[in-house]
Write a structure and sequence with these properties.
elongated; Rossmann fold; alpha/beta; 2 domains; 6-stranded antiparallel β-sheet; binds iron/sulfur cluster; 13 helices; 11 strands; single chain
Amino acid sequence: MKEKTCLALFSGGLDSMLAIKVMEAQGIKVIVLNFNTGFFFKNYKEIDGVLKYIKPTLPGIEVNVIDIRNDFFETLKAPAYGYGSNMNPCIDCKILMLTKAKALMSVYDAGFVITGEVLGQRPMTQNERAIKIIQKRCGLEGYLIRPLSAKLLDETEPEKLGWVDRNKLLDINGRGRKRQYELAKEFNIPEEYIQQPAGGCILTEEAYSKRLRDFLPDLSTEPEDRNLELKLLSVGRQFRKDKVKFIIGRNETDNKFLLRFKGLSEYSVFEPAEEIAGPVVITRNAISDDIKKFLAEATAAYSDGKDMESMDIIITNGNTMSKLTVKPGVKSELTKLRVDI
Ligand code: SF4
């Protein structure tokens, strides 16, 4: 019955969880949509992780993960409403997700859509002007309910039609979290979830955004390659010398991940030879002999052999392997080339 069913945009955060609970409390069936933009890997690594994490907190609720990575990437390159304080194109992102949700209403026989937005909480999207732009652009005018702040916003059609009881909706406003924490207790949401909700968009992080801004023009147009490159942006220390981007692993986990690129013809992988411990360094660009030497020196600079007169570095590109003997570079000089600090 569409008047008793809604779709909920669910980011994994506490507010969207509470919005779902508020609607359920008045007998509305909620079907959850979790949109995968490709940038939600703060608290979980893969999309399966999202489901594993949120399912126990939403017993009996249908959760659908919708892959919007390709559409989102187009939005990210040139958002009509610009970026937030980092590389987060929040207004365009909301419009994209809600447009998709609107298209899915008939699929799930839902009468309206809800979100966990709270008026005045986020400067970019949760002010009255942005809220109006978003609902107009996504075509959900009158059929989009923000249960946590609904009493402060215009009455929607489902409220006017009596599908939803406006009196049971809330009037939360601003950045404080006290009301949300109280509600979370009322709804028996586990403490661990309140402390560390599953949500988190990595585009709001400054360091990641610097890396992305630097690399955006170079990202592959081929989706599979691009998704791997985006993952690479979370790994290691990231540098650029002239046009050449390179990554130096910080620890064993980084190095293991970077070694996955060994043997691929598009990547050159640098490692200290034999028994000297050190980082894995990679670059995707075709490189000149000068850059090859420079990257070998950088690899040596971050290795245990950094104080040696010279050391051997192995370079692998596709099936080809070569060795260079270099004097370790100077870390402080390399730090000036970081794109993420
Ligand atoms: S924080 Fe990220 S996921 Fe959330 S609206 Fe902004 S861009 Fe979209």
